[in-house]
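Protein in question filed below.

…
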Amino acid sequence: MTRVAHALAGPPGPRPDPGMGSVYLHSGQIHVSAAPCRVTTILGSCVAVGIFDPATGVGGLNHFLLPRGHAGSASSAPRFGNLAVGQLVAAVVAAGGRRDGLRAKVFGGACVLAAFKKDKGQHLGSRNVEVAREVLRVEGISVIAEDVDGNNGRKLIFQTHDGAAWVRSL
């Protein structure tokens, strides 16, 4: 597994491509596309999981706030990691991604509030990262890169068709 390089110097990310779609993803949302698309989001303790199938070019990204929610309830929205990751996998497969070809990248999970740093690894961001890894492991999807933890938020740009990602520390 590799870490995603931070775009700390030079251009802030990919060059504009007028033929490629662009979406801003808010917390509690999922975006999946069978056409090339760049998805941008801002993460603090939240986590985003990007899943893509390099053979078909189908992929997507989620952005969840909390580690666990209950399926079948009003809180089963993709605001919860244990639900959002499975929902993302199902949506990518439904859009034409091949289950056995899926790859994942995980982003976020920072400890951005000083009051939570006393918990030594048990802060909200680290719990979100662990849930993402756990669900991906159960789903049988390899995590090929991640940029997680730390004390700063991130701006993420993720390309759904090939999994390319740009991260800027905030």
